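Journal club prep, shared notes

We agreed each person brings one worked example of a sequence with its structure written out as tokens. Mine is Short chain dehydrogenase. I'm keeping it raw so we can talk through how to read the token line rather than staring at a rendered picture. Sequence first:
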Amino acid sequence: MGRLQGKVALVTGGGAGIDLASAQAFAREGARVAICGRNLETLKAAANLILGGAVTIQTDVSRLEDLDRVFAQIQVQFGGLDILFCNAGWSQFKPFLSHPESRPALTARGFSFDQWLRRGRQRVAKHQHHSGHQSSDTKPGCTLSAELLDRGIRVNTISPSPIDTEFFGRHADDDGAAKKSLHLNINPSKRLGTAEEVAELALFLASDDSVWVVGADYGIDGGAGNL
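Then the structure, token by token:
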């Protein structure tokens, strides 16, 4: 029996790269999987690559009303959610309060999924691009993991260095080839990580193998974080 047998998993941005690799890993271990993102055709193509298929939901995760619709659909189709892997987005190095939706939206977004998660069975992993680690302070009000732990929800984060996916060069101001070359030169392992390597870490955090892991941030970066 797989490590996620009988679980329901949602992967945001689940159409390619780390998203798709993680959805595939979850399904391989027995989970029923839903993926969501902006491009429906990309999601449908990805679903065909996931064992047993996947529910595809077109959505913009930056919109709170879209998130409510996603969780409501999962509730109808699966009866609840056990695993949430928040993986959509990319890093922008700006002051937190400079974002117009900063605190109110992020707070609401962080707690909006709570009503849909099945009590005592859930585990949540969040992928964050490598731009600093989660605070080690575990007092309520300091981290999401502390706020939600008494509800049976574990929150952990994954902080990868650049991963070799099609994400490189996707944006107009992003020279993918130059960025790859830079990171190859400065990374002690002299290579980029793979989506599958990050997916295996996400699988560990989503499973009961990590039941004693709470509020941790995992750097998966080939040693780059030690520089």
